[in-house]
Give the backbone structure.
Amino acid sequence: MSHQVLARKWRPKQFNEVMGQSHIVDALTHALNTQRLHHAYLFTGTRGVGKTSLARLLAKAVNCEQGITTTPCEQCTSCIEISQGRFVDLIEVDAASRTKVEDTRELLDNVQYAPTRGRYKVYLIDEVHMLSGHSFNALLKTLEEPPSHVMFLLATTDPQKLPVTVLSRCLQFHLKNMPEMLINQHLASILSQEKIAFESEALPYIAQAAKGSMRDALSLLDQAISHGQGNVILDKVLAMLGCIDQQHTIALIQALAANSPEKLFEICQKIAELAADYQQVISDILHILTEIALLQTLPSATLRDETQRGVLLQLGECINKETVQLYYQIALLGNKDIAYAPSANTGFMMLMLRMLNFTPQSKSTQPSNVILKTTDQTSKNRASKLSAEKLGKIIQNPPKQQKPAVETLSPVAQDWETIINQIQLSGPLKILATHCIAKEITDSSIHLILETSQAPLLTERNKMRLNEALTTYFNKSLSLKIDITADEIASPATLLKQKIQLKNEQAHKNIEKDQNVQSILKEFNATIDINAIKAKE
Ligand SMILES: [Zn+2]
């Protein structure tokens, strides 16, 4: 027997073999069981998700010689002929190649005649949105008064191009894109049944490249098998897709988290040697950042590749949420910019440097140690890993800003404003802290007084987060007490406001005194807009 491509060979032959579309399968099997069939079905969804497969399955289910069934027998002539695409009462049309009204008329000419062999005369029109306006009108006439022995199965990737008059006469089913996890599992199961040896690490890359289409996934799997001379091998798959091993991508993010330019440069060089498709690499980075952010928010979330969970969770601990978002944004823009770079290589290097230099350092307790652990675990997973010697280098040169986390500082020696500046707060926490004055700072406690105007910010959550930030900074547990006062207090925020006001007033005076300004005012009969004058910071 000649070689049959996997996508064709593994096309679902029964409803229970249809992957990832249980909402539709349930509805169709119910309709078949109760024999309440509609005369026109519309299957929508992106390419390769199984629209025509499902339509053919339905055609088989209504025409099986054993009776209308949810499990076509696969034995009778009708079933076999439908499977082989030569059943006389299943009329398949690719609307993309037959758009003219004459074609549609010719097609519908025989509608009124009873089916030759089957129970239903089934018209399967693929890419139905390609029909011309006149063709739709011809079709509509039949849809309005269909003979009872006719069933229309329409399929399209673009239902919005269908006239509403046609849409309203069809029962519409939208097929979902296949989740990568499901594609991954399906590929593994097919390979096992085909008795083809495979490296399971290779499958997630194929699943990702298929972008939700099972047909594309199976075509890629076919290619991968021929690249691997009968087997599915990770390196061959990576080369075929222009990807790099995800371990390199993770190592890049680890190097960023460890603030290590040496490490980052080393990995970039390695990626350059692999001659990878840089846009693919950036898209990998985006995927990984998304999963890190997802785990930071919802630790129980399902991942594309569960074996990465440990590594990603740890990365999520040593890069703060804001930085992950920033990395993502930079990578997203970098993906667009790389086309304008003198070479993809320079574009990518610049992107990495931007991520390294334009993001605040993570404020977690002991980032370097976490990185060490992470990488250790990674190296257990796969062979080509960072050497312990190089890791040592990262640990020996921890980023300067993270020093306080290692030593234990005493709060007593510092005033509140200095403390705020050191711990680098942002958002509501910063506003909260800068509107406080310190009433008492001891070695184990901090007692603050907050301006009443900012009292709404004093939520339990904000107080807890501020306490955490202080605990992290001083590397010891501190009790934090915050009282509210209606009195005017000299908080850092108030002092700053006064300072700016003073500067602005000085600037007004300087401008008013200026001879040139005076002559301009006179010449043009102008006035000065005091509010527009701001002192330079
Ligand atoms: Zn049958």
